[in-house]
Amino acid sequence: MRQIIAALVSGILFGLGLAVSHMVDPAKVIAFLDVAGHWDPSLALVMGSALAVMAAAQRWILKRPAPLLDGRFHLPRRQDIDARLVGGSVLFGLGWGIVGFCPGPAIVSLDYGVPAVAVFVAAMLGGMILHRLVGRAVAWRLQEADG
After folding, report:
1. Alpha helices, H only, the chain
2. CA-CA distances (angstroms) from residue 22 to 17, 106, 142?
3. 124, 54 in Cβ contact below 8 A?
4. Which of 11, 31, 52, 116 is the S-S candidate for 40 at Cβ 3.0 to 4.6 Å?
């Protein structure tokens, strides 16, 4: 139960941070990404501040034997850069630049009742489901080929 409450509080704080920093405003995000035009650097300050706080907190947190609400840390094992990582990053960046939303701000923006946001979130969820189904199908075919 403590994990659920911690997740809820974290999600609320994250959503409030996105709203206060205007990262839920697609026009502001697109202006930030438009470095060749009318660039708005304010989101760079938001991201830089978040990275600085997290970098300091991570060093302090990882000195603990385990997180407060779990028996062990769940850290990424891989540190290599492969085609799948680059492709996913490019796809994410293209979507963010075209629409002005990434998943977190889009979900927070659902509260504003804008139909285009609901369409984006529905398409995002559809893409996630499709990715999972295709991944399972590929894994199944690879397993069948080996067996």
Report:
1. 2-20, 26-33, 42-61, 83-99, 103-109, 115-146
2. 8, 12, 45
3. no
4. 31
In 3D space, the residue among 11, 14, 76, 17 whose CA is nearest the CA of residue 3 turns out to be 11
What integer pLDDT is reported at residue 113 of this predicted model? 83
**Single pTM value for the model:** 0.68
Per-residue pLDDT, 147: 66
Q: Residue 88: CA atoms inside 13 Å, Cβ hemisphere, count?
A: 8
Cβ within 8 Å of residue 50, ≥6 positions away: 17
Rounded distance, CA 99 to CA 103, Å?
Answer: 11
> Number of folded domains in the chain?
1
* 2 CB-near residues (< 8 Å, 6+ apart): 69
Domain extent for 80: 2-146
pLDDT at residue 93 above 70? yes
Which of 107-128 are b and which e, b meaning 16 or more Cβ less than 10 Å from the residue's Cβ?
Answer: bbbeeeeeeebeebbeebeeee
